[in-house]
Amino acid sequence: MNPSKETVVVVPCSGIGKPFGTVSREAAYDLCEDLRPGITRLVSLAKLVLGEAGARDLVARHPAVTIDGCKQMCAAKMVRQSGGTVAREVAVLDVYRRHKDLKPEGIAELNEAGRKLARVLAEEVAESLDGTGQPVKGVVHA
Question: How much is the pTM?
Answer without folding.
Answer: 0.87
